[in-house]
Amino acid sequence: PPIASIPPAAGQSRALVIGLRAFAVVIIAWHHFALYPPLKDWAAPVLGHLLDWLADHARATQVFFVVGGYVMALSMSGRDWRLPELGRYVVKRYCRLGLPYLAAMGLVSLAYVYARGWLPEEVIGAPVTLPQVLAHLFFLQAILGYEQLSAGFWFVCINFQLALAYAASLWLRDGP
Hints:
By secondary structure, the chain is mainly α. About 75% of the residues lie in helices and about 0% in strands.
């Protein structure tokens, strides 16, 4: 609904949720600078002590997951989850997460081809294989034991898997 029609308490709750997620995203971005080469190497001369602290203490991903789970539960629990709704949800969720993810996979794969020989294998990983790409395509790389193509891809997979698990539990609640 338009923001004007949201009761003040709900608007404040929404602002708190958005604020928590925004704060978590900023901390997560800085945490990446603290952990992953070559970002750490580039940022260390300017932010060395802050990066060390972030590497040891920044755990905002948990906040992002908890807040995201809360929002998901609020938005999904009130619906009736029969089989057609579940199927539509899976397709919509894949399109929402999967299509940008696939574009990112393509860009990362091209970057790896371009960077191979310039950067050490610990930064870009082993050459990409077809089974690894197929596992990524279906968000199954961690489950099947394949190396992530990019450090952030695990998050998209977990997000998709948790959403499907929750939707399946709602489908079980409402009956086939």
